[in-house]
Amino acid sequence: MLKKITAAAGVVLLSVLTACGSGDGGASSTNSGGSKDGITMGFAQVGAESGWRTANTKSIQDEAKAAGIDLKFSDGQQKQENQIKAIRSFIQQKVDVIAFSPVVETGWDAVLEEAKAANIPVILTDRAIDSDDESLYATFLGSDFVEEGRKAGKWLAENAGGPVNVVELQGTTGSAPANDRKKGFAETIASKPDIKVVASQTGDFTRSGGKQVMEAFLKSVPKIDVVYAHNDDMGLGAIEAIKAAGKVPGKDIRIITVDAVKDGMTALAAGEINYIVECSPLLGKQLMELAKKVVAGEQVPKRVVTEETTFTQEQAKAALPTRQY
Ligand code: GYE
Q: What CA–CA distances, in Å, run from 275 to 46, 61, 115, 175, 265?
């Protein structure tokens, strides 16, 4: 549909967008601001499992609105079958572009072949798929999760200060961030005999999952020095379990997490978390820009990597007042 927009209409659209600002973040599934000639995007979200996900959903909804893109939003509740259903319904509705964040890495080829046969381009955001067929998607926008794991491992290697036992709280089993954050961390500490991962289990990226697994670890693992949690929410759940066991998080047991959402950064600034590797959820703006290009048939890079940093406790104190999410 975008192809039909003339250059003049494009200029008009642009000035409307500038006037609209960044949108109000309403949760409606369709964007009333979108013009009839504009792009319709079907977005299949993972779920609402974490603070990161909430910020990511808001960014996508706000930026779709700001870009005049009509967004059909579906929450997969952390289930691949729900996401596949949503993608099939987007194909039936003949949307202009499908974007999605795959809950797990494998098992997408069939549904993406259906999108391809219907000539609907697909953009992967946030999480990657494991497929030999790169023609099934136009581009993948998101973080380098292996690198995030390496950053976490590097900080520990530099700050362990003696032999340490680490317990790992993994993200959703089979998801790209869980696989990659585990891999990057393991790779970095492999040459450090002082650092041992003594237990590792999934907390499904949720606060309650992190709390439950940590409670079990505290009962079964005799000596825990460090928690490496694949996201802030599980780290925050672990903090509750550590306090309930009469220990001091950040001191008796040091905690490293990934994400740097508000609650995580607040705990870091308060000394209850020791280090956070940032993973930015603000992918909405770049996603809408890529979608416009893909629909217009323009070339886009096959991989767009998000820029991110790391935070110590002091850096969290400085960053918190202006943190957006
Ligand atoms: O780190 C976690 C969320 O895919 C990067 O998913 C995302 C991860 C994020 O549940 O908090």
A: 26, 30, 41, 23, 9
